[in-house]
Amino acid sequence: MKSILITGASSGIGKALALHYAEQGNEVFAGGRNKQRLVELCLHRPNLHPFVCDLTNSNEIKSATDNLSLLDIVILNAGSCEYIDDPVQFDGELFARVINSNLISVGYCLQHLLPLIKKGGQLVLVSSSAQFLPFPRATAYGSSKAALTYLARTLEIELKPHGIGVSVVHPGFVETPLTAKNDFDMPGIISAEQAAQAIVKGIAAGKAEINFPFAFICFLKFFTLLPRFVWQKVAQRMTV
User: Fold this and answer.
1) Annotated active-site residue in 2, 83, 141, 207
2) Burial (0-12, 13-18, 19+ Cβ within 10 Å), 188
3) Is 145 tagged catalytic?
């Protein structure tokens, strides 16, 4: 049995991960701001516990960790997505919100949770396939996720001497409350349960990079090999 903490567990991928690990008999701490949702999720599941706090508030995270013991796996999955529709009238406040939610909060989590990860344990950061290429309107979201990937790759080097493995996850489109708001086609979209299975499998294998779905990731990586103007033409057509 392992002790696992997952942020963003009140819905989507995080919820699917929490249920999956709990059903395997692990002790799971399901993190999020919505106490009611987390209590409902953990109801009648004695090995599933609410971890309630606002991840953008360092003091709240510290208070929530007071009752935690050592952890085998920490999955930092929580995040948000907002789009900047007019690049000329740039919305700096929106940009700051997304960076704060997707990146700064991870820094606070690392501050308080890294000391709790056992030697031989794993840290998992959920980034996005959006970090592979620049997408119109995803200015804030893509920037936050690209930074998260860089952070994960740096920590992979720095934490290895401490016996902590690091994985970064690059999902494609996944059916979640966030993607339900999208008003465009989402090729290769998969369910949250399928995403959770891919992540669990990648973590168990100790993969440094967990990418899915395969065909969509191959499509994106193909364009990264071409001259930049090729993708620019493709991306510009997305704005029409």
Assistant:
1) 141
2) middle
3) yes
Residue 7 contacts residue 78 (beta carbons within 8 Å): yes
Strand partners, 76: 125
Of 180, 93, 207, 100, nearest to 143 by C-alpha is 100
Exactly one of 15, 21, 108, 145 is catalytic; which is it?
145
Taking the C-alpha atoms of residue 50 and residue 40, their distance in angstroms, rounded to an integer, is 9
How many whole angstroms separate alpha carbon 7 and alpha carbon 50? 10
Q: Which tens digit of pLDDT belongs to each residue from 154-208?
A: 999 999 999 999 999 999 999 888 787 787 788 889 999 999 999 999 999 999 9
Look up the pTM and report it: 0.95
Domains of the chain: 3-238 (3.40.50.720)
CB atoms within 10 A of CB 145: 26
83 is catalytic: no
pLDDT in tens, 44-90: 999 999 999 999 999 999 999 998 999 999 999 999 999 999 999 99
CA distance 98 to 102: 6
d(CA 199, CA 237): 32
CA distances from 19 to 39, 165, 188, 196 (A): 13, 23, 24, 9
| DSSP 8-state class, residue 132 | S
- CA distances 151 to 40, 158, 177, 179, Å, are 33, 10, 26, 24
CA dist., res. 138 & res. 184, Å (int): 13
